[in-house]
Each structure stands twice: as C-alpha cells, then as structure tokens.
Write a structure and sequence with these properties.
Blueprint lengths: L10 E5 L1 H11 L1 H17 L10 E4 L4 E8 L3 E9 L13 E7 L5 E6 L1 H19 L6 E5 L5 H12 L3 E5 L3 H11 L5 E4 L3 H4 L5 E4 L6 E5 L9 E4 L8 E3 L1 H6 L1 E4 L2 H7 L12 E2 H5 L13 E4 L4 H14 L7 E4 L10 H13 L1
Parallel strand pairs: 1-6, 7-8, 7-10, 8-9, 10-12, 11-13, 12-16, 14-15, 14-16
Antiparallel strand pairs: 1-17, 2-3, 3-4, 4-5, 5-6
C-alpha cells in the first residue's frame, strides 16, 4: 500500500466502515478472525522490538478518550478510541475508533482506517488466541456474561480458534441476550439463554466477562469459580471499572498484556502493586508456562494494548492489496518544491480566482 510514485505521495488509502464490512465479507469472518490472531501472535513474538507505553487517556464523568501508539521501528501505528457506557442509551456506540499506520523512515501515513468494527474483531481474536494457550484442553463450552456489541465476535473467535461449540449467554438486559441468541442462531452453536451469571457458568470451561458499566462491579464472586476454568476478563478496561472479586485473582494465575497499563485499568487495579502476573508474550515465546495442570485457574486480564491494534492495521494493509476496497484521501501537502509550502498556497489562490 506504500506509494511509489511522486504523484501519489499526497494520497493515503482510507478504509471506510462500508469497505471494512465488504472486506470482512470478502475474506469471511472466521477466516479473518484466524488471520488477525496470527498477526497478533506474531507481534507478541516480536514483543521486545516495540515501543510500549500505557495508552494516553483523557477521562471524564461520562467516559474516556484514548490514544494507543506503538512502533516496531519500521512502522508506526496508533488508534483513537473512546469508551462511553452511556452512549447506548442515546442510540450511539459505546466504543468508536479509527487508526493510522505510518512509515517510520519518512513519517508518511500508509493507511487510515475505521477501527470501530476492527477493534471488535481484534479484541475477539486476542481473547481466542490467549484461550488457545491457557484454556483447558478440549474446552468446548463458554459462558458469555455481557451480551453487548462484543459478544458475537467473542463467540465466533472462540469457535474458529479454540473449537468452542456451546454457548451459555447472560446479560442483565434480557434484550441483549435475545439479540445475541438471534445473531448466533445460525452459526453452529448449541445456545442456552441464562437468567443469571451463576446459571451461565454451569459446565463452562471458559468464562468471558464483557460488561459495559464504568464501575467497580462483582460479576463473578469467588465461590462461583471452580477449579480448572479459564476466565477471559475483558470488561474491566479503565480505572474504576472491574468485574471480578479480588479473591478470584488471588486463586488464579493472572496473565496480562502490558503490566504498567493493566495495573491502572485492569482487574489487578484492585491488587497491590507487586501482585504477581505473567506477561502473555512470555507464554507465546516459551519464556513462561501457561496452563500447567488441569485444576489450575487461568485468568486473562485483558484491557487491549496498542500492539494488537498495530497487528490489526498491518493485517488490513496486507489484505487490501488488489481489492480496491479503499478510497485515496488527499490529506498530505505535496508541493512541487518540498520547501515551498507557501508557494503552493499562493498558487491555489490564483487557481481559485481563475
């Protein structure tokens, strides 16, 4: 996607929501989730190459707006993303996002894309990738607690990557569960709509919590969690927002993306600063062990990290080749003489008068 002709330098490929949906349908949703997981896994293997920093967050009483930057030394990427739980009451998305990938050697953008849909896809792909390493062998049943915008993507990624075939769904809003049941009814799952979190986790080897309210909540209590399960805790993603009782964390082996960010935003914000965690890249590279024995409780305290968005941007850039599913945006100044930006503006005045 990198421009090679001088006349193309001002044009940046832009992927709209419509074209992102066309790209997903062209590739196939399961195949795209598997592909994204592969790119994310590759970048966890290259973890030491990346510039890493907790996301830059602007918090308000209504939500948060964040920037998530990183670079591997050759490409630079960032995502702009918000999180406003009240938005659904106003007919808006809780999370919206866009992202950019750039060439480190010259600073020029290579890709600008919507990332509202793409964030849902990469979050699901990350969850399933982690579960591939940490979930019990042969796990085929997942409890999905929180049946909002993420739920179907989470389910389909777990199906495509981990072989999950049974879903037990619960949300405090029955309409959300009805929506998820309807959307997943033809996707090859054995579906059960549940009336409580306790009912949802019965027989589940994987428990995914993905609720939206920005508060210290207790979606799971310690007595609800039996030995041997994998907990995919992805709803706690900002300061002041958690889903699990602290006693669950004390019993589990906790895996995180980037500790300096997770200690601010994740479930472990409830714990002392020295609470032990394992970084997931260490499991991928074999530096640390993941699941060691059948009765072990593993917990992924997933808050979403910039490298995962970087992976998603790389994946989209590579899949766009030859599709035509982007629009060239004229968003970079490209004067005939790179030193004469003012002259370009003056000539535009003449052109406007003519």
């Amino acid at each position: 996607m990198q421009a090679t002709e001088p006349s193309d330098l001002a044009m940046v490929p832009f992927v709209s929501v419509d074209n992102m949906m066309r790209l997903v349908n062209r590739i196939g949703l399961p195949e795209m989730l598997v592909g994204l997981a592969g790119y994310i896994e590759d970048d966890f293997r290259r973890w030491q190459l990346f510039d890493k920093t907790p996301r830059v967050a602007a918090h308000s009483k209504d939500g948060v707006i964040e920037l998530m930057p990183t670079s591997d030394g050759e490409s630079y990427g960032f995502k702009y993303v918000n999180g406003h739980p009240k938005n659904t009451r106003e007919g808006r998305q809780t999370v919206t996002a866009f992202g950019l990938l750039a060439d480190v050697s010259n600073g020029y953008p290579l890709l600008l894309t919507e990332m509202t849909l793409l964030t849902a896809l990469r979050t699901a792909a990350t969850s399933a990738l982690v579960a591939k390493y940490l979930a019990p062998e042969g796990a085929d049943t997942m409890a999905m607690i929180g049946n909002g915008a993420q739920s179907e993507f989470q389910a389909l990624a777990m199906q495509a990557i981990c072989g999950v075939t049974r879903l037990r769904l619960y949300d405090i809003d029955p309409k959300a569960t009805e929506k998820a049941m309807r959307n997943l009814s033809d996707q090859g799952f054995d579906l059960t709509a549940c009336t409580s979190a306790e009912q949802a986790i019965e027989g589940a080897q994987i428990i995914t919590t993905c609720t939206a309210d920005k508060q210290y909540a207790t979606i799971l209590t310690d007595n609800m969690v039996g030995a041997g399960v994998h907990i995919n805790a992805i709803g706690g993603d900002c300061p002041g927002k958690t889903e699990l009782h602290p006693d669950i964390l004390r019993r589990a082996d906790v895996f995180v993306e980037y500790p300096p960010q997770t200690r601010i935003e994740g479930e472990i914000q409830q714990m002392p600063e020295d609470f032990p965690v394992t970084e997931f890249w260490q499991v991928v590279t074999g530096v640390a062990k993941g699941r060691r024995e059948p009765r072990q409780i593993t917990l992924f305290d997933g808050v979403g990290f910039a490298t995962e968005d970087f992976s998603a941007l790389r994946y989209i850039r590579d899949q766009l080749q030859g599709t035509g599913l982007f629009q060239p945006l004229d968003m970079l100044a490209d004067p005939d003489d790179p030193r004469d930006l003012f002259g370009m503006l003056r000539r535009s005045q003449v052109d406007a008068v003519a």
